From TrEMBL:
Highest taxon above the source species: Bacteria
Name this polypeptide is given: UTP--glucose-1-phosphate uridylyltransferase
InterPro entries: Nucleotide-diphossugar_trans, UDPGP_fam
Keyword line: Nucleotidyltransferase, Transferase
Amino acid sequence: MDGQLSARLIRQLKSEGVDMNAMQQFLCDLNAGKFARTSPVQIAGVPSAMHPDIVDRASLQSYAIPRAAAAAKFRELDLPFQPESLAVPEDGNPDILRFPRGALARIGTALYPKAAFGILNGGSASSYADEKKNRSLCPEVFRFYRAHFGAVSDNCKGRPKGITPAYFNPDGSPGASFLFLKLRMLLERKADYAAAFGALPEGILPAFQMTSVKTDGEIRAFLDSCRSDPDLLALSVPLRCAPLEMYTEVQPMMAALTHSADGLPRRIFDRAYGEKDRGLAFPGGHGQNFAILAPVYRRLARMGVRYVWLGNIDNLGYTVDPVSLAVFALSGRDAAFETSFKTPMDVKGGLLVVTGTGRITCADIGPAVSPEQMEQFSQEGGRLLFNCAIGLFDLQRLLPMLDSLPYRLPLRITDQDKDAGRYAQAEQLTWEIIGLLEKPLFFAVEKKKRFIASKMILENLLTSLPDWFASEPGFAGTPLHTLSLDLHAGLHDLLSQDYGMQMTDGVWRFAGARASRAPC
C-alpha cells in the first residue's frame, strides 16, 4: 500500500497517530471481505423485567443456585469457605441454596484476587466541552449554566477526558478527576478485602486501560504524579500495596477511507479539503479494545485473574461491585452487562431489545431503534433498559474469542460529506459483543448508583449543581430538574461511599483511614 501513497501523505498520517502497517492490514482484510458488516436488527420488542437473562440488581436480596453447582463453583474458584456456611436451603427444596446479599458481597470480595478493573480511557474532552453540542442537549437549561460552562470548558478543551473534573463542589469549584477517583476506589476495595480476609495478596485488583495516541502521554504523566499523591498513599501505605497498578495499551488512529461512491476496493482517502495527498485521522471505536488489549487480557489470565470489568472512564457509577461479581461467578454465564431504565438524558447509546429469534441484544438508539419505536414500546408497557456500558467478562470464555473478535464484531463504515470532503469512517463498538455471546447475563441497576455518566459538561453540571437554578421557573419542578436531583443524590452516595470522600467546609475531600463499609 505504501508504494501507492505519496511520502507526504504517509508522513502526515503517521504524525497524526495512524499505524500505517496496521492500516495496510486492515484494508487488505476489508477488501477481502473478512469483516462482519452491520445488518438491521429484527426487533420484536423489549425484554420483560422477569426475563430469565435479567437480574434485578437494584432490588436484589438474594441469589439461588443448585447445591451441587454451588459446591462445584466454590471448589473451582478456591473460595475460603463452604457454600453452606453462607447460604440457606430453599424452603421445600434443600437441593437449592439461597445466598443473601451480605453473603454475596463476601463471596465477591473474596474473588478480588481473581478480578481486574478495565477502563476505556482514550477519549479527549473535545465534544464534552463543545458549546454547540452542550446547548443542543437542553437549550432551555443551558442558558442557566452558560457562564459557569465557559470557565469549565476552557479548562477541559484538548485534554484527555479522564483527567478532567468528574464533578463540581457546591461552590462550583472543580473536583477530582475521573481517573483519580477510579484509583482511589480500587484502594477502597482493597481495604475491604484486607478488613475481611487479612493481608493483601500480590496483584489484587489491578487496573488496565486503553488510551489513544492522542491522550496517552498526558495520562501517563498524570499517573506518574499519582504515585506520590497523599490521598492515595493514605490508603496504600497502611495496606502495604502500591498506590496504583495499571497496565496500558495504546489505540492508534485510523485513516479515513474513500467514499462508497468511489467504488471498490476501498482506499485511503487522500483529498482532504480538496488538497492532494492530504488524509484524515480518526479513532476506530472502542470495539478495537479486544484486539488492542489482547496482550493485557492474556497477561492477566497468566497472573491468575479470571474476571475483568470493562467500562468508560467518564461514568462515576462504574465501580467494583462485589455482589454483581459474585452473582456473575455463580451464574456460569459468558459475560454480564449492566443496564438501567432509560431517562431523558439518555439520548444516545444502546437499548436492550428482543430479536425475532427471542435473543436479547443491544441496539443503537437512532440507527437501529427509532424514537417512534421507543414510544411504541413504552405505550405497550415495556420498561426501556439502557446500556450502561459496563461489562464483566470471564477470561476463560473471552480469551478463545480474542483472535476472531476483530472480524466478528460488526464493522460500521459510514459515509461522510463534510467540509473536509466526501470520505468514509470505520469503527467497531465494544457492546456489540453481546450479540455474539451464547449466554450473556444482564443486571438491571439503578441509574443513580451505576450510571452517572458525563458525555457533556452540562450533564456534569446538572448532576453536581442541581440547586443552583432551582428557583428558576423554566427549570424548577421540571422532569429534568427532578432527574438532576436524583442523580445528585447518587453522586453524593458514590463520593461518600465508593470513593471514600467526605464533605468538609462545603468541599468534597478524601478521608484518610476508614472503617470497612457495609455490603452493597
